Amino acid sequence: MMRWLKRKSLFYTVLYVLIMGIIGAILYTRYEILTEKYTQRHIDMFDQRIESYQLMQQRMLDSYFHLFLESPQIALIMEEASRSEPSVQAVLRRELMGRTEEMFRALQGFDVRLLFFHLPGSVGFLRVHEPEKFGDSLAASRPSVLLAQNSQKKVVTFETGKLFDGFRTIYPLFHHGKFVGTVELAYPFAALKNQAMRQSPGAYTFLIKRSVQEGKATSADINKHYEDSLFGSEYLEDKESALHKGAKGYKKGELEALLRYHQTTIQKAFKKGRLQGIKLLYKGSYSLLTLKPVKEIGGEDAAYMVEITPNHTFFADQWNQFVVLVTLIAFLLAVLMWYIYRFNRSVILLEQYKNAIDDSMIV
């Protein structure tokens, strides 16, 4: 009898563990699916917002180009400059500056930071944002300008530079059908960050690969315009749009602690090189980190757009729901199996008692 009870107890214990393992796996899969859908929805929303901001910015740039820069007067200045001596170019440069300076100030209100005219041969003619610099060759440092001049078509791209990393649009200029150079308009990530923070408060930054920037700028220029990134030594952050600048929803030092705590997970995410979201748990509160890779002209990953938003209670709610469901099912299953075990035990005991009575009657 005792041996039978031990075998039955072991059988029910194994069966209980097996059933709970299956149920637990199903419920955990459900938790993973729900949280993954929530994360993907947040990623898609971030991606769509950024693309929407860029589309609006691009339409504004195109409008300004067609209204003001694609003018016969500007084309004539560029045509004359392309075949003139340096002394004549200086006069033409001042004339072009006078025609575009006021317009550029208006563009700055829309976060445009760069208005740059290039002569054929990828030679810098006039930086309206920095007029004292001109005459430099851009063939080696600016592939986007080289592409626009060779193709004589508009080029829209992200590209790092010696002093400015931004989203650039380069337009060809023509005078009576003759190609006379290109003009470039560009805006930084800070323009997109300002728009994004209005829609979804959090922390935003733009990470530049240190190896890309060090190949173009001097150490002095890097120290002037960039700071070391909280995401590791491989990346730089533009001081104007650094992660801690304008961040909402985090107390002082929280972002640094959060990133240190999940440093290994984040580094693995960077190596994947794709749009993705990562949930980060720190001191009982969930944040969601979104990484959007940005490719430079030529297809090379050069930067990341980063968004960190706080207080994603959905993850905690779903985990608590998972724990409650597992606990409740485990309890109910234990009661059911205990009842079955007791019922079978009573049946066996009753059968043995009946057999004992029958045997005694026969005797």
What share of the residues lie within helices? 55-70%
**What's the shape?**
elongated
Number of DSSP E strands: 11
Radius of gyration: 34 Å
- Nearest-integer average pLDDT: 88
Let me know the largest β-sheet.
Answer: 6 strands, antiparallel
Helices and strands, in order, run as HHHEEHEEEHEHHEEHHEEEH
* Helix vs. strand class: alpha+beta
Low-pLDDT ranges: none
Distance N to C terminus? 23 Å
Q: Numbering strands along the chain, what is their spatial order in the largest sheet? A: 7-8-6-11-10-9
Secondary structure tally, helices: 10
Strand content: 15-25%
Descriptive terms for the model:
elongated, alpha+beta, 363 residues, single chain
Written description of the protein model:
Helix 1 runs antiparallel to helix 10. The mean pLDDT is 88. With 363 residues, the chain is an alpha+beta fold. The longest helix has 68 residues. A six-stranded antiparallel sheet has the order 7-8-6-11-10-9, with helices on both faces.
